[in-house]
Amino acid sequence: MEAAKPLINAFRTKSKQATLLWLEGFREACCLHRVLILCHRSRKLLIRTGQCFLLNGFIFLGSIIILNSVIVPALHWILPDRCPEFSSQELCSFGGILKFYSFLRLGLIQIFYVTWFYPLYVFSIILSNIWYNDIAKYGFAAMGRSGPTTLDPVRQNEALALQIGAGTERPTGLGGVMIGIGEQVYSLLLLSCFFLEVYVTGFIPYVGKALNFLLLSWMYAYYCFEYKWNFSEVRLDKRLDFFESNWAFFAGFGSPCVLPVLFFSPLVSYGFMAILFPLFVLTATGSEAEQVISSQRTKWGDAGFGRLPIFNAADTLSGLELRYDVCWTRTGHVQYAKEKKDEGFVSVSPGIPGAASEKERQLRSLA
């Protein structure tokens, strides 16, 4: 028992630090005054944010409210599921008519979903994603940033490595462009696999709901910061390393955005999150997450939690697409690998560093 006390104390200390960092992330996400400041600086940003609210709040959520509060009660009144007192008892004695009413009512509601909600849902996803990119671009411009940000070089820990590595170690010209395209493709593939992982965890008994909420928090936090990192030209491996090394902060940052999944149906949750997401993209754009995390680490004597392999399973699934990955690697990363060969470093696909040894061997053979 005495031997276990140091481990228990260390666990308590790490848990306390993780909780504090989670709270810092939650607080950063809730700094919505940044949205007002940025919208005040940029009229284009204000218009795009208003369009998102109009589409996802007024039209999408408004349609759900009209369906549940007007259309469904009207159908129950026109096509009742029980016999009214003033109707003919001979008609009501025939039970098949009530079943027919129920079937017809359900069919009309499904027609409403097929002809309105599902097309509107797809249209909202496509258009919102276009607008989200515009919102991030206008917000980044309103912050007065035009390139990679830098931090105090005195704090050379993993929290600062994200910005220190921004825009470095990448060839110029066509090779750099192809590497950038390859990173975007691989990032999309990685996050798609991670979304599949999030979906599957929802079916796990007992702990599925909590695990699903945690993974969703990480996913939305990554989405929020990805726009900022793209405009700052931060390499994908640096993003993943920084994200996984500070998992508690990003779990806290993503939590407010995914709170609706705990209280509403999937369609209603999507509507609320589609409204909230651009707001948190802007708070992420205005956030100095690296400095906040570094400040917390300074209080703890630069102690860290270790890297949590959040995207490891998704990266493994993405590795199944090796043929496609090598295809774009041949056009971009092979040239990059040759340039780094003398340094004893071979560039691999921009996933988690060291997580794709098979891809390294493929690249060495190509180089």
UniProtKB/TrEMBL annotation:
Residue stretches spanning the membrane: 53-79, 111-132, 185-204, 270-289
Membrane topology annotation: Multi-pass membrane protein
GO cellular component: endoplasmic reticulum; membrane
Compartments, as annotated in UniProt: Membrane
Signal peptide: none
Predominant localisation class: membrane
InterPro entries cross-referenced by the UniProt entry: CysZ/EI24 (IPR059112)
Record key words, sorted: Membrane, Transmembrane, Transmembrane helix
Keyword Transport: no
Top-rank taxon, per record: Eukaryota
Gene Ontology process terms (BP): macroautophagy
Protein name in the entry: Protein EI24 homolog isoform X2
Gene encoding the protein: LOC110765804
